UniProtKB/TrEMBL annotation:
One family name in Pfam for this protein: Lactamase_B
Cofactor names: Zn(2+)
Protein name: MBL fold metallo-hydrolase
Keywords: Hydrolase, Metal-binding, Zinc
Domain Metallo-beta-lactamase: 31-252
Family statement drawn from the similarity comment of this UniProt entry: Belongs to the metallo-beta-lactamase superfamily.
GO MF, one annotated term: hydrolase activity
Species the sequence originates in: Aliarcobacter butzleri
Gene3D superfamilies for this protein: Ribonuclease Z/Hydroxyacylglutathione hydrolase-like (3.60.15.10)
SMART domains per the UniProt record, alphabetical: Lactamase_B
């Protein structure tokens, strides 16, 4: 096994009933998880979490609406916590809590979805509409296109049987599988490596997979496709039943992250 280190890089807060249907009205914490994989090809980040850049780009409207509706707390950004050179950054999708630290690592090469990127830079889509979708293009920096390789341009492969019912994916570095997890956001992908499956926001809480406690239908308005989102949950539940040894890690599940965070 090659080393995997998991960090919490900031968090936001929301009422519990939003994430879990039937949950309480108490405010709970949604950590922003980042994984650092020390791979033989180089050090690879799964997402970046929050950074000071988030607060900078949300000072003015309409982007400020994001900060007002999603109160963010950040103790220390990732750039101040990792001493290793970051060679690559994998972006699961383009919501701000996953990309806010990109500009902190200007020498890192980037992997992301082309369809997600094209949405972010679509000049026919207003800043307000992008903010409503949780996308803040100013976080990407001016040299993003020079640094990026699109997931869709990687080799498409049949996935191993342990990942059923997921059938197709993309291959990164010969041993990392990139798997589309549709419904939450355009171009969202998870990453499977060494029996770790980082599923981003395919679910917000592991209870959605283990106990079928799904998000409140009120969250449908922020989803790319509510029906497809629930179909992805169905697949993750089947995967967990078939291959319980796989460590499924949602980005925002505090209970799950406590098992793995060292820092």
């Amino acid at each position: 096994m090659q080393n995997i280190e998991i960090f919490e890089v900031g968090y936001c807060v929301h009422p519990e009933f939003v994430v879990l249907k039937g949950g309480s009205f108490k405010t709970i914490k949604f950590p922003a998880m980042v994984a650092l994989i020390e791979h033989q090809k180089g050090n690879l980040l799964f997402d970046t979490g929050y950074s000071e850049h988030f607060f900078e780009v949300t000072k003015k409207f309409p982007e400020k609406l994001y900060a007002l509706t999603t109160p963010v707390h950040l103790d220390k950004p990732l750039i101040k916590r990792v001493s290793k050179k970051i060679d690559y950054i994998f972006i699961s999708h383009f919501h701000a809590d996953h990309i806010a630290g990109i500009k902190d690592f200007p020498e890192s090469l980037i992997f992301c979805s082309k369809e997600a990127y094209l949405l972010a830079v679509n000049k026919n889509l207003s800043r307000f509409k992008k903010t409503k979708k949780g996308v803040l293009p100013a976080l990407l920096g001016n040299d993003f296109e020079k640094r990026v390789t699109f997931i869709e341009d990687l080799k498409e492969v049949d996935l191993p049987d342990i990942l059923k019912p997921f059938k197709k994916g993309y291959l990164l570095f010969d041993d990392i599988y990139i798997i589309k997890l549709e419904g939450h956001a355009k171009g969202q992908y998870g990453m499977f490596y060494d029996n770790y499956f980082f599923i981003s926001d395919a679910v917000w809480d592991m209870k959605t997979i283990t106990l079928n406690k799904r998000p409140n239908i009120l969250t449908a308005f922020i989803m790319e496709d509510w029906k497809v989102y629930n179909q992805t949950i169905d697949k993750l539940q089947e995967l967990h039943k078939n291959s319980p040894f796989i460590k499924i890690i949602p980005t925002h599940c505090s209970t799950t992250l406590k098992q793995y965070i060292k820092d």
